[in-house]
Amino acid sequence: MQPDLAETNNIQKLISQIGGGLDQFLRFEHPDAVRPDANWREYLDVSLPQHGVGIDQVVEDLLKQVIPNGSPIPKPGFTSFITTGATSASVLASTAASIASPQRYGITSFNLLEDVSLRWLATMCQIGHMQGVYSSGGSVANLLALGAARQHAFEKLGHDAGAHGVTKPVHIYASAESHHTIQRSAGVLGIGRRAIQDIACDSQGRMRVDALRAAIEKDRDCGIVQMAIVACAGTTNTGAIDPLNEIGEIAKEYGIWFHVDGAYGLPGILDERIRHLYDGLEMADSVIVDPHKWLGAAVGVAATFVRDRQLLFRAFTQEPADYLEGAIEQTTDSAPTIEHSLDDFGVPYYDFGVELSSPCRGVVVWAMIREIGVEGMAQRMRRHNDMATFIAKAAREHPNLELLLEPTLSICCFRYVAPGVTDLDAFNRQLHRRLIRENQNMPSTTLVNGKLALRPCFVGARTSHEQARALLNDVLRIGQELALNLT
Question: Would you state the torsion angle of the CA atoms of residues 380, 386, 391, 394, taken in this order, to the nearest 10 degrees?
């Protein structure tokens, strides 16, 4: 049934109200959701309603109870995790897709933009020789890449692992600083989490090439399938970039799949001052990057790139289903004409990964790149890297600060040093909790060579040098207050 004019006008009014509520949220003048006078839990956590209250009441609930009690993650001063608030272009594009194309298949503009944006993203990140597919995040993106690696390794042995499973023990050689999703991927792929061989890192958090070679040599005559080497182009812990060129040469020498996890750090290649750190990326067999991290997409957008997308097809195809393939008229030599958007599925992304139902993610990446271009993205990378460098410089120069690791990308690891304090880890942990509860400048913590560090990671599109300066001032102020209380 077609909506009448009054209903259409009401929808427009309600959308405008939600937009106003979100604009208010983005002023970041509201308190944190957890506060003494908050009553949203009692209001929202009620019994299953037997009768509806209508859309107007739902919108009012969203405006008064839900949106104002959202997450601090979008705040410009939030630097804890490698996730951020979505840019306006991302929000608008994902909203458009949720209405105009609930699925990514069919001969539609949205299916086309999956392909166009993947090509743009690959070219921008200087892996334009690769083909890609979107998924929900780095967890699945790494899973897909390692699924392709598994397929490749066993096909060399004359075995289709995607169809018949794994028949031999497998090892994957990964930096000790690699993300834990690598272990989970191995478990899901039937290889086993213990198949991951942790390769030691140097004091800068980079994979040691000598340790990698030793681990590979140790397994050469043990009947183990040497499936993949996993390197990091920007670790989540400190932003370190592994020596990709040397690792790529070793992968080539031993004939092992070379995977680069660039979920966070790959866009750093746009900063020409550090581009040389990515030398060797061209040797990779697979690469991942998460647009919902540094590029500013709404959460739920990651990309896996491989040299040959047919490996993904053989690893993850769901096999034909009558209700799907039988419902369309796939383009063939005998039936080449497309007269309707459902005459063909378009690029079969559902067979390149683990999702059949999937939102259209490509339009989000397309919108963000189209809005500000490669240069706009590069300016953001440089700004954030400069902010980490600013914190590092202050930490080197201030008598009450200590720099624990020189920043490579937009992460800086430092701590407050209070004279006479013997347990600096506990001191900085207390300082960190104060920062979080003040709800303005919120880094995370990590361990660097056994020492607890404050770890701001600057990735937010709305985050500027103002937040870096404010964070530094807050650390010095709180550190001084805590130190005085100890005397």
Answer: -150
Residue 383's CATH number: 3.90.1150.170
pLDDT tens-digit profile of 317-364? Answer: 987 666 566 666 666 665 567 888 778 888 888 899 999 889 999 999
Structure tokens at 64: 């008064």
The answer on 325 and 426 residing in a single domain is no
Show the domain range for 482: 373-486
Contact 455, 446 (CB under 8 A): yes
pLDDT tens for each residue of 184-213: 999 999 999 999 999 999 999 999 999 999
Q: Which of 337, 340, 347, 285 is nearest to 119 (CA)?
A: 347
Q: Does a structural domain hold residue 205? A: yes
pTM for this entry: 0.93
**304 shares a domain with 407:** no
Residue 86 burial by CB count (10 A; 0-12/13-18/19+): exposed, middle or buried?
buried
Instruction: Write down the residue that tokens 């410009």 correspond to.
Output: 76
Bridge partners, 192 (sequence order): none
Q: How many residues does the chain have?
A: 487
Q: Which residue has the tokens 């004939």?
A: 255
Cross-strand pairs, 198: 174
Start-end of H helices in 37-170: 40-44, 55-61, 88-100, 109-124, 138-155, 161-164
